[in-house]
Write a structure and sequence with these properties.
Layout: H1 2-41
Length: 66
């Protein structure tokens, strides 16, 4: 009878471990996707309109009218 209890306990523990491994794997995948999306949305090389940021070279400097 003790053998049957040990087997059922071992099966339950194995089943739980498998479920936890699967859940952790899915969570890691989801977090990686979220991190990639955040990195893509905060890309500093593009302005809000999608054009490349050329810095000061994009606009001519104002001329001194004195």
């Amino acid at each position: 009878m003790a053998d049957e209890t040990d087997k059922s306990t071992n099966q339950a523990r194995t089943s739980r471990d498998d479920r936890l491994k699967s859940a952790l794997r899915e969570n890691l995948k989801r977090r990686k996707v979220q991190a990639r999306e955040r990195a893509a949305s905060t890309d500093p090389s593009q302005d809000d309109d999608g054009s490349l940021n050329e810095g000061a070279a994009a606009k001519p400097a104002p001329k001194n009218l004195e």
